[in-house]
Every structure is written in C-alpha cells, then in structure tokens.
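Re: beginner question about structure tokens

> Can someone show what the tokenized structure looks like for a real chain? I only ever see the sequence side.

Sure, here's an example I had lying around. Input first:
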Amino acid sequence: MFNFICTTCGVQYNKSIDPPEYCTICCEERQYVSPIGQSWTTLQSMKDQNYQNIIRFEEENLYSIVTSPKFGIGQTAYLIKNEGFNLLWDCISYVDEKTIEEIKRLGGVNAIALSHPHYYSSQIEWAEKFDVPVYIHEDDQEWITRKSDKIIFWSGEMLELNKGIEIHRLGGHFKGGAVLEWKAGNEQKGILLTGDIIQVVADPNWVSFMYSYPNLIPLPAKKVKEISSAVEKLIFDRIYNAFHGIVKENAKQVVYKSAKRYIEALDGKLFDT
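And the corresponding structure tokens:
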C-alpha cells in the first residue's frame, strides 16, 4: 500500500495498492493533466531520485522552503516564527529527515495552514512528522485527497491561530481560498502571505487574481473588488506569494491599484483593442 503523489500537482492520496485512476485536483478547470498523461510517484521514489529541500532565511523570523529540482507546481512553503509559535504556511510534496531536523533546529512546527487545495501536497506527512494540526477552510473540504484526524476544518471569514497570526478567507481562486496575515512581520509593518489567491506578477509593483492560472480563466470583477476591499482592513506592507514573488513595500496600495486595473480591463475601460 502506498500514498501515491500526482507528479503534475504534487498532491498526495490515501493509501492504495495501485495508483488512482486520475487526480481529482488536476481534472478540472483550475489545473490540468500533463500532456503525456497521468503519472504518479511516492515519497520513497522521490528520495531515491535525490530530491532535496532548500530552507532559506528570508527576513527576521521568516524562512522559505522549496524542493530541488522543481517538483509538481514548484511552490514555496514558508515557516513563520511568532513568539514561540511556529507556523508552516502552505506545503510542499517532499519531506525527509534532513528537512525535519533543520526545521526542528529552527524551533519546529506548531501548526500548518493552507491557502488552497493546489498546495495540499503531502500535508499529512508533514503533520504526522511534527504531530500538529492542519487548518483548512471548510469550503474546500471536498478537495481533500488524503483524509486524516490532523485536519481541522475552520469556518467563517477569519481564524486567529496565534497572537497576530490570522487566516482570512477571500475566496476567488477557490471558494475557501485564504491568505495569512502576520502582523509582527516586516518589523511590525505586517506581511501578507497569499499563496496565489493574490498573485505577485512579473513586475512586483503589481499583483493579479485568477480563477485558473494555467488555463488563464479570470475572476469576475465583483470578486476582485471583494478581495481588494477585504485586505484593505488587514495589517501588511509586504506580500510573499507561493512562488517567491515579493511586493517589498506599499503592498496594500499595490493590491488596490492592481484590482482597479484588473476591473477596468474586464469592463473594457483600460484599453481599446
């Protein structure tokens, strides 16, 4: 019996003798099945292929974790240290003893929280290694591919995990899509970790919003306005997304002007073509 992992999106499944017939995460509009077909791996196979995780210091009390070579979507997970409470924000598929030991030297993990299903990856492996809960918004529970008592489904629009650490449901990319407000980050000016619920683009003076990134399906203007209005109330001056995109300063204004541009584009007011 194996916990198979989809090689396209990196999400791990319940134990089975044979690989699942298809990946439920990839077989819908927000993701895709590889042109070469559905394929699977396991954590042991990844270890045999010499994958490794790189843990990098980003700024005070914030570390990024990425897998090399790139696997699946290639997202970044973040470890936040907040006055004795360590949170792993979003997840990656690969985890090994070296990674566990390095994170333990940084104080370990007290909880895991997820922005949306594309980054569930091997979240239960991580939760079991550190014996911690995984927080997922109840609106996205249908996308769980590996069930566990470690998962806590939260509801409503906000959940405080620790003093100054709050998850906010914004929806958009997924109905339960969430961002993490870390008020003490960035020298008390605040950091917003967004996955790709709010996506930092090639020019880090702007962000964007999509229903599907690989298939370029936009969000409705109404939803983008809702997201912009919701984050206006939060404390942050910097954004980190899931692919190491960073808005270094004035991030709240960046979200506002980006939402305005996005809406004007959808309404046909930004350009004539």
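Each token stands for a local structural state, so reading them left to right follows the chain. The chain has one domain: 2-266.
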